[in-house]
Every structure is written in C-alpha cells, then in structure tokens.
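Take our chain:
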Amino acid sequence: MTTIVSNGHHHEDYAKTVFGGGRGDHEAEQVVEESETCGKILTVLSWILVCLTMPFSLMVCFKVVQEYERAVIFRLGRLLSGGAKGPGIFFILPCIDAYARVDLRTRTYDIPPQEVLTKDSVTVSVDAVVYYRVSNATVSIANVENAHHSTRLLAQTTLRNIMGQRPLHEILSERESISQHMKALLDEATDSWGINVERVEIKDVRLPIQLQRAMAAEAEAAREARAKVIAAEGEQKASRALREASEVIGDSPAALQLRYLQTLNTISAEKNSTIVFPLPIDMITYFMKAKEAM
C-alpha cells in the first residue's frame, strides 16, 4: 500500500526535487522554513478568530461523523497527522481546514451486461455483482480522485478480460472459480486506492438464440439416445427372466395351472365384464392324440 506523508517531510522533499541537491540545499531549506512559518502564522490567526467569535465559532469548528463514517482533514492543503477522524465529534479550524466524509459501509455495484467474445469465438452477454467497501479512508481520498468510480470501471474491464480468456463450457460450468479469480484481481488492483473487494458473483450468462436452439437439440438427441439404450437393456433383462421362468414352468406342469389361476384372480379384481378362461394345453394335446389314434 502506498504510504502518504502528511507533514513537512513531503514539502521538504518536493523543494529538494525542484531546486536539486548540493548547492540547491540551502534554497530548499529556505523554502521549507518560509512555508512552515506561513503555516504557523495562519494557524495562530485562525485560533485568534475562534477565540474572538466565541461561542458562535464553536458551531463551525465542531463537526460530527456517524459510526460508519470517517473524516479526512486537510490543513492548508496537506493531510493532518493522525489519520482519519471519527466516529463522533472532531475539531477543525475555520479558513485553513477542510475535510471530506468517507462512508465505510459495503457498497453494491451491479455490472451492466458486457458483450464478450469467448476463447472459442462465441459471443455471450455476461453481468455480475461486486461487493466492496472503503478499508482506508485516507488513502481513498488522497491516492485517487474518485475511488468508487474507478473501482466500477475496473470491474467492468476485468470481467471482459477474464471472460475473453475462457471457452464457453468453462464459463457455463465454472462460475465459482471465475468469481474467485476476478475478486483476487480486483482486490489486488484496488488495494492502493484503499478499497477492499469483499465478494464477486456472476449473475447471468446469456447465449444467442441460435446457439440456445442448437444446444437444446443436442441435449434432446443425447437424452433420446440414452432412453433407447436403457429400453434395450430392459428388454434384454426381461427376455432372460422369461427364459428362466419358462424353464421352471416346464419342469413343473402344476406351476402353469397356478399361473392361470393367478391371472384369473388379477382380471376379476379389476371388475371387468369379460372373463377369459384359459384352456389347459394338456387337454388339447389329449384330443389331438385321440384323433391321430382314430
């Protein structure tokens, strides 16, 4: 994370950079001393103004920030030492102090649908949701002009880049891993802005209508093929069971008669008006043998 120097060291380094080293050190020190002297004079004048306008000045000098907020104070254009103030009451000097409120609550950004060309040259529309919050109020104000707007633009670009590097089947089946990868990239990039990305979720992946029809036809054909295979396996198992049953009935003629009676019982239980009475095969065989004998 970038370190922010808020007091005279930053001004001194800047003066040395402008005037150079060596023989320019004396001029740099003079600039720093003049700046510090001017700042002290303005601070004293501000305190005098506060004392002269008591108690009305207290209405301007005391500010309040909520539990979920922090105040970043600038004195004469430079960050005040001690970091962000709050929550509660804090004091500012009129005319020389300015402050910015920073909300630390988690924010939600709904990424609009992004048209992406996948690795296997398929155009898809992808949208996502990003949950983020400000983790360092001072850095979010001093290091970037608009931390929230920058985070949102970066989220859109990162989503397009990640989806463009993956084929369609990975986008459809590995949403969780894509979300984790996107969160890691966003969190690393926004760390210097004082932003912490808490969660990323892929909402929807929209396919073209023609591709949806082609995938539906392919899935239907695959289901029909599996159904035919399962039906064929069932017929095969049923034929084997029937063969075994015929062998058992062939060994015991009484078993066939019991099967006849069981079938009649099933038919009568259904309250049908037609009753089918099976004729024993042995009787037909007897008459056929008698006819041949005659």
Summary: The two ends are 115 Å apart (CA to CA). The beta strands are 62-65, 69-75, 78-79, 88-91, 97-103, 107-117, 123-134, 195-206. Confidence is low (pLDDT under 50) at residues 1-12, 14-19. The CA atoms of residues 21 and 28 lie 9 Å apart.
